[in-house]
Write a structure and sequence with these properties.
single chain; 386 residues; alpha/beta; Rossmann fold; 7-stranded parallel β-sheet; 12 helices; globular
Length: 386
């Protein structure tokens, strides 16, 4: 048995972030290890303590248009106002995330209020694992260096599991940083083929692409571990979007009408500008409710990677609908190609899929998923060692 610490993105009320952290922790525990998740805050957390260390390694401001910066500022102001107006609803959602973290994540008692704290603390673990999520993304507004485990001491093994860069290229001016950081990791696995290629190109180190941690648990595992909290007493089409999409709403109405399904939508915030009749908006779902809603859905429309992942893992007919120019669309294409489900990818704004193409047989996808799942688990076993 090894003492293992996971460093990933938590404390952000993000469904995918919490569930991937839990899944990796749970799988490592099932493999017989003592596992903790480092209680690390980030600049998005109010209690994060800023310092002059680990600042952004690339100037992002110049890469954004004035309009984009203004839109971002306005969006943040609206979100802050909405959290005040819909305080009760927002607090219920936040509480469900906190309850999930307290009950299902083995968070360290020590809270790391800054990245500097990681380097000051003498952490007594055999192994550190970084990932999954976009922990190596250089556009987060801070340096990703800590997520390359450079705080680990000599003799402590460093592994990345399904780490994502979030981009298909790394700007030339920061490639030396990434080369040094890649070389700090003993065993490297990424979540996308593009990230694997970047590791090999920049550092020359071996790397392998593995599944997102949520796939390490099968549907029956999720159902046995988490309580079922389904409050929908009729068959429904589930919408889960991380950006506004009238296209998805219109497609949902078309499919739901023909299949005689209710439309249910998970809102990843406490409010929305869209209030449509005959759509049940769920504003206060926590991670447990999120999993239940996916497991019981009859059809899913999503522009989220983890929405796509849970649809595949739970064998729910779906369409994955990112924007065609999205920099992060490789997340979708990678898993869909591996499961031979690339035909379930349609781009926002294109012609609706025909009715004959709505249904989905998962037989082949499940076989391919089993192969990838075994490959991913074997990577962990080999990297951790005896």
């Amino acid at each position: 048995m090894k003492r293992i610490a996971i460093l990933t993105f938590i404390k952000s009320e993000n469904y995918g972030g919490n569930l991937q952290a839990f899944a990796l922790q749970k799988k490592l525990c099932l493999l017989g290890h003592d596992v903790s998740v480092l209680h690390q805050l980030r600049p998005i957390n109010k209690k994060f303590i800023k310092s002059n260390n680990f600042l952004s390694i690339i100037e992002l401001r110049d890469k954004l248009s004035k309009r984009a910066r203004l839109n971002s500022h306005i969006s943040n102001l609206i979100s802050e106002l909405a959290s005040i107006v819909f305080h009760k609803r927002n607090q219920k959602r936040i509480k469900r995330f906190l309850d999930f973290e307290n009950k299902y994540l083995n968070l360290t008692q020590k809270i790391f209020y800054s990245f500097d704290d990681l380097y000051k603390e003498k952490l007594q673990y055999n192994i550190f694992i970084t990932g999954s999520d976009q922990v190596w993304n250089f556009t987060k507004g801070f340096s990703p260096e800590p997520y390359f485990l450079t705080f680990a001491k000599e003799g402590q093994k460093k592994i990345s599991y399904a780490a994502s860069i979030g981009h298909s290229i790394i700007p030339e001016e920061i490639q030396d940083n990434y080369k040094k950081w890649f070389n700090n990791i003993d065993y490297i696995s990424t979540r996308e083929d593009q990230a694997e290629l970047l590791v090999k190109q920049i550092s020359g180190k071996p790397a392998i692409t593995v599944l997102d941690p949520t796939f390490l648990l099968r549907k029956e595992d999720w159902m046995n571990i988490l309580p079922q909290k389904n409050e929908i007493n009729e068959s429904y089409l589930l919408i889960y979007t991380i950006f506004r999409s009238p296209y998805i709403l219109n497609l949902a109405r078309k499919i739901a009408k023909i299949k005689k399904l209710k439309i249910v939508r998970i809102i990843p915030d406490c409010w929305t500008l869209e209030h449509r009749q005959k759509i049940r908006n769920i504003y206060d779902a926590g991670p447990v409710e999120f999993v239940s809603l996916f497991s019981n859905a009859s059809f899913v429309l999503t522009n989220s990677f983890h929405g796509t992942a849970f649809s595949i893992n739970f064998n729910i007919p779906f369409f994955s609908i990112p924007r065609e120019n999205a920099q992060t669309k490789s997340r979708f294409t990678n898993i869909l190609n591996k499961t031979n489900l690339s035909h379930r990818l349609i781009y926002d704004g294109t012609i609706f899929p025909k009715e004959k193409d709505w249904d989905l047989n998962f037989s082949e996808a499940n076989k391919l998923l089993d192969i990838e799942r075994n490959k991913s688990i074997n990577f962990l076993i080999t990297a951790i060692g005896d």
